[in-house]
Amino acid sequence: MTTLKSFYSGKTILVTGGSGSIGSGVVRMLLGLDPASVRVLDVNENGIFNLVQELHSRRLRPFIGDVRDEKRVMMAVQDADVVIHAAALKHVPLSEYNPLEAVNVNIQGTQNVISAAIQANVGRVINISTDKAVDPINVMGATKMVAERLITNAPNYMGGNRNTTLCSVRFGNVLNSSGSVIPLFKGQIRNGGPLTLTSKKMTRFFLPMRAATEFILNAGTRMEGREIYIPKMPALKIIDLAKVLIDEGVAKHGIDPKSIELKITGPRPGEKLHEALLTAEEGAAACEEQDMFVLKHPLPTESEGEEQTRNRYDSRYADFLDLQQIKDLLESIGD
């Protein structure tokens, strides 16, 4: 945290999508690092109101606005030192049903942030991406993949002596974030079931909110430009997560575990059984560090044979957390 504080202290930071789960987590951590101000740009009026009421910070600047509105984004970035771009449409089935809106927010919104930051000479832009951008089969993942490429290749459009550097961070599910599987399962258990599973084979990468937030901010301190930072993340089987949460519900609410039915629903529109954080090509070219992989420009394009499985960072090939490890992980984040 000392390194983070020395970097962010005295700076003006804009967080787009700052009232969402990840965005608000970033805002909370930033306010503890002695910034000059933290600007929150979000279209969710109630979300911003609740965040302001919760944090009561004189350094928090609530900006109501939409990343699709280029002029509003330009006003929001003026004199900012750092932009953390968390605004996005993130729900896979909703993006499948509303593809144009996903394009407008995730692609055009990202380009608006890039253009405004370059014109305003913002020092650093950190784009928050997702494992769904890897070999995408759905609209949400495809739009986030394009957003990554816009960030990586933004210098091609800068010209002159622009000072803006840009990078992306890419990770899997954040534990207990709004709309994610954990609050969904907990609500279903409280209501007596059924607990809905896409498939007993489904696997996912997970990261606690604090770890995700620190990873984002650390990327901002070390970035040189055009990188994608990928944390090493624990993986688990969703069926095992369900079992642990049912046991927790039994202990907390006195629920009869036999009353909770597991209902297999099949994949939702656009949903994968497994997610990857690196393609085989990326895995072969990535720089591996103790707790992360770093992809640098130019991105790799091809690998062959055994490399395709060996280098791919995929949840189906991961060492899964066992039931006790999942329980410990959930206890570490609280309710």
Strand order of the largest sheet: 3-2-1-4-5-6-10-15-14
CATH class of the domain at 2-171 and 209-231: Alpha Beta
Distance between the termini: 24 Å
- At CATH level 3, the topology of the domain at 2-171 and 209-231 is Rossmann fold
How is the biggest beta sheet arranged? 9 strands, mixed
Radius of gyration: 20 Å
SS-based class: alpha/beta
CATH superfamily of the domain at 2-171 and 209-231: NAD(P)-binding Rossmann-like Domain
CATH architecture of the domain at 2-171 and 209-231: 3-Layer(aba) Sandwich
Helix content percent band:
40-55%
What fraction of residues sit in β-strands? 15-25%
Strands, count? 16
The backbone outline, from C-alpha atoms, is globular
Averaged pLDDT = 92
Q: Give the uncertain stretches in residue-range form.
A: 305-309
The arrangement of helices and strands along the chain is HEHEHEHEHHEHEEHEEHEEHEEHEEHEH
Number of helices: 13
